[in-house]
Amino acid sequence: MAASSMRRFGRLGCWVSRREFSTCDDKVVVQKSGKSMNLYSAINQALHIALESDPRAYVFGEDVGFGGVFRCTTGLADRFGKSRVFNTPLCEQVHLMGFILTWPHKQGIVGFGIGLAAMIVNEAAKFRYRSGNQFNCGGLTIRAPYGAVGHGGHYHSQSPEAFFCHVPGIKVIIPRSPQQAKGLLLSSIRDPNPVVFFEPKWLYRLAVEEVPEHDYMLPLSEAEVIREGSDITLVGWGAQLSIMEQACLEAEKEGISCELIDLKTLLPWDKETVEASVRKTGRLLISHEAPVTGGFGAEISASIVERCFLRLEAPVARVCGLDTPFPLVFEPFYMPTKNKILDAIKSTVNY
Amino acid sequence: MMEKELPTLTLDYNTKKLIYSKIPSMSVSDTPWTLFLSWQALDFPGGKVAFTSEMNFIPESANERIPCYRVLDDNGEPFVSNNFVQVSKEVAVKMYSDMVTLQMMDTIFYEAQRQGRISFYLTTLGEEAINIASAAALSADDLVLPQYREPGVLLWRGFTLQDFANQCFGNKADSGKARQMPIHYVSKKLNYFAVSSPMATQLPQAAGVAYSLKMEGKNACVATYIGDGGTSEGDFHAALNFAAVLEAPVIFICRNNGWAISTPVEEQFRSDGIVVRGQAYGIRSIRVDGNDALAVFSAIHTAREMAISEQRPILVEALTYRVGHHSTSDDSSKYRPLNEIEYWKTERSPVNRFRKWVERNGWWSDKDESEHRSSIKKQLLQAIQIAEKTEKPPLGGLFSDVYDHLPSNLEEQEEKLRETIRRYPQDYPSDVPV
Ligand SMILES: Cc1ncc(C[n+]2csc(CCOP(=O)(O)OP(=O)(O)O)c2C)c(N)n1
Ligand SMILES: [Mg+2]
């Protein structure tokens, strides 16, 4: 019995480890005096810097006091005190209430993003607009764990970015690696608009890379070409980029040169970088874990068709999650895998 | 009583006359303001409100905490005889043995998770009495909307150890079709709604379900469970208010176990816990010792009778302690003292206390104990073994039940997926039949 369970676990383990993360360097992070660390440690470092550099920054949410369920807030309460780093009662809506709206820099939460939706959509997102720019949310950043993790089922693996991308007034950011997470999180916290910052759960522990120790920021609303190529443009974000990268490598073996773009900020997104790339390659593939129907890929596809219709040599391809709730035992079937992407690359190039 | 003595003032909107219950009516214009003030009560929508000249703020909490109803003392002796609903030998023995079974299931399944055989687990350790005694006090027709730490209710109702194992291993015998994480049990047959991870969403649903029982004139109620942490969600407040206004036969059972993951109750709410909130919503409420099986049984039994015969919601706050970690994703030694856990695990154990009582009645012996334990252990190991060997549900289960019928987008996606599987079989787990 034990042996068979180990085998089963082994197989699962192998499937997990095939998911890596994208390590392509960002030009902005020139200094390489970094320490090797995983994604949650990079987030932790960014939060330390944010609290250190701005005495009016706060961190609060469910269980953040002892370090958080994902360990992202470890040590913050000891260092900065319980009045700046504190547990809230278990209620997501309240994390956005009165108090925070009157302070310039604060950032919550660990929790169930969807539980927060009404406050984000109706209040935070429109705070500036509906007050004629007399009020704003300052540097509100809402951190939320995000995406597949291998065993989360419906509630703990969803990718709800498209819901939030339909809300003018907020920014939506998804980092692909520890180094990116630190720089993007610091930019989000210091951005004067409300930001929803999705942290791919899969990468919390698994993704390890050198992260510069100093305070640095990476620009929002700027996509990055993380792999140059000439035959097809691939666009993605977060943990999915590493899967796409593997597909690019496979395609290369078959003589197809792929350009890979990390969108990083989904709202407002950097159309120019994607457009320039598609003008070069003439083909576009988008991949995300969220269900394909109404996913953010649809928006990218529509915009690029508008801008590059005559240049396109094939229909825009989407390799995404299925139109089902996020499954448990069927997770490997649901996911946009390397081979699904590879097939789509080939059929797009050979269209 | 007081209402009768108070003179009242009402405004007749048609005639613009003020009507004072003790004197003949007069028109607004000739009513001196001072006279108005001197009247003792206002007939306000919703009921008369007395006037007072004293400016008193209601204190934030009462001087004394609401006491906790208890039947058995720490030695399993009843405090006073007859302050509780009697339990027959048969029921008492089943209650005790199910409490032991639940504890053993938790220990063994937890271990299975540590060995990597299941992906997740969450124990009910320390809360066996609330689980089993509340279930025993309900009837099988009562509908249960659980949070997630109440598998004992299912156990009591006949969910087998094999059923539990099948769900945790996510195999094709799982009645929930292996779609949810371990411990998210469901059984339509046993009137147990599917566990849902998001906190407190079961509560407004419970109010609605109870209203439908009321409308259909059923001789049954709804029992819904919530943790101390869950009571901070807006849904808790919405549910209590709805249930009170709709006069819905629902028992809100709050397991106040001191912690919500790492957040202690002091950081969760002020005032005197959960029980005091009932009155603010117009709900009859009681606080019970959640580690006293007889007290829980009596309180829920009585709550059920009131809920059904008077068609009203009842709130029960059961004080207990989460002896285990929050789940297998948690290490509670990081945020709470070990001796606190140890104290609740040994000195306040609900299982030990109840055992003393059943033994004292001559209903249970050491021999019964060891026979029961070895039989359950055998059943558990076998259940795990079978669950592990049973294959996963077939691939069609990924697409079915999203809607009643497969819409065309899913048909198309299923077809495409099957083609991909044919091309890359190595990408997919071999234990899922395609
Ligand atoms: C809406 C929502 N927010 C956060 C969570 C994460 N979460 C899961 S259990 C839990 C604590 C619940 O504590 P309590 O209600 O006291 O129940 P207990 O675990 O103590 O039985 C939290 C915060 C969740 N599941 N749903
Ligand atoms: Mg609790």
Automatic annotation (TrEMBL), chain A:
Keywords: Mitochondrion, Oxidoreductase, Transit peptide
Enzyme Commission number: 1.2.4.4
Pfam families (UniProt xref): Transket_pyr (PF02779), Transketolase_C (PF02780)
Top EC category: oxidoreductase
Gene Ontology, cellular component aspect: mitochondrial matrix
Protein's GO biological process: branched-chain amino acid catabolic process; response to nutrient
Catalytic reaction list: N(6)-[(R)-lipoyl]-L-lysyl-[protein] + 3-methyl-2-oxobutanoate + H(+) = N(6)-[(R)-S(8)-2-methylpropanoyldihydrolipoyl]-L-lysyl-[protein] + CO2
Location within or outside the cell: Mitochondrion matrix
Top-level taxon of the source organism: Eukaryota
SMART domains, per database record: Transket_pyr (SM00861)
Name of the featured protein: 3-methyl-2-oxobutanoate dehydrogenase (2-methylpropanoyl-transferring)
Matching PANTHER family: 2-OXOISOVALERATE DEHYDROGENASE SUBUNIT BETA, MITOCHONDRIAL (PTHR42980:SF1), 2-OXOISOVALERATE DEHYDROGENASE SUBUNIT BETA-RELATED (PTHR42980)
Domain Transketolase-like pyrimidine-binding: 37-206
Gene3D superfamilies: 3.40.50.920, 3.40.50.970
CDD domains: TPP_PYR_E1-PDHc-beta_like (cd07036)
InterPro entries referenced in this protein's UniProt entry, alphabetically: THDP-binding (IPR029061), Transketo_C/PFOR_II (IPR009014), Transketolase-like_Pyr-bd (IPR005475), Transketolase_C (IPR033248)
GO molecular-function terms, A-Z: branched-chain 2-oxo acid dehydrogenase activity
Cofactor: thiamine diphosphate
Principal cellular location given in the protein's record: mitochondrion
Assembly mode: Heterotetramer of alpha and beta chains.
From TrEMBL, chain B:
Database matches in Pfam families: E1_dh
Protein name (database record): 3-methyl-2-oxobutanoate dehydrogenase (2-methylpropanoyl-transferring)
Catalytic reaction list: N(6)-[(R)-lipoyl]-L-lysyl-[protein] + 3-methyl-2-oxobutanoate + H(+) = N(6)-[(R)-S(8)-2-methylpropanoyldihydrolipoyl]-L-lysyl-[protein] + CO2
UniProt subunit comment: Heterotetramer of alpha and beta chains.
Positions in coiled-coil regions: none
Sample GO molecular function, one term: metal ion binding
Subcellular location: Mitochondrion matrix
Cofactor section: thiamine diphosphate
Main location: mitochondrion
One GO BP annotation of this record: branched-chain amino acid catabolic process
Protein family (similarity comment): Belongs to the BCKDHA family.
SUPFAM superfamilies for the chain: Thiamin diphosphate-binding fold (THDP-binding) (SSF52518)
UniProt KW keywords: Metal-binding, Mitochondrion, Oxidoreductase, Potassium, Transit peptide
One Gene Ontology CC term in the entry: mitochondrial matrix
Sequence ranges assigned to domain Dehydrogenase E1 component in this UniProt record: 99-393
